[in-house]
Amino acid sequence: MEPTALALPDLSSTYPIHPEQARKFQQNGHQLLRNILSDEEITAYRDVIVQAADRHN
Questions:
Q1: Which of 39, 52, 54, 53 is closest to 9 using CA atoms?
Q2: What is the distance between the alpha carbons of residues 7 and 44, in angstroms, rounded to a whole number?
Q3: CA of residue 22 relative to chain centroid, distance
Q4: Which are the contacts of 11, defined by CB distance < 8 A and separation ≥ 6?
Q5: Distance (Å, whole) CA 12 – CA 9
Q6: b/e burial code for range 17-53 (CB count within 10 A of at least 16 → b)
Q7: Threshold 0.90, pTM exceeds
Q8: What is the pLDDT of residues 5-34, one digit of tens each?
Q9: Comparing C-alpha atoms, which of 41, 38, 35 is closest to residue 7?
């Protein structure tokens, strides 16, 4: 079965972070960033992300 193209929102916009956030990411390997996605973007991507996680677990 051929995969179909999904009409997902564009996520290429930038998200400014404080240098301290970058430092913590470099130190810990992760950083919590709030309000990056809108509720609509989360809804649109949720199933795609869950399916990808299921395939790789």
A1: 39
A2: 9
A3: 17
A4: 37, 41, 45
A5: 9
A6: eeeeeeeeeeeeeeeeeeeeeeeeeeebbeeeeeeee
A7: no
A8: 578 999 999 999 999 999 999 999 999 999
A9: 41
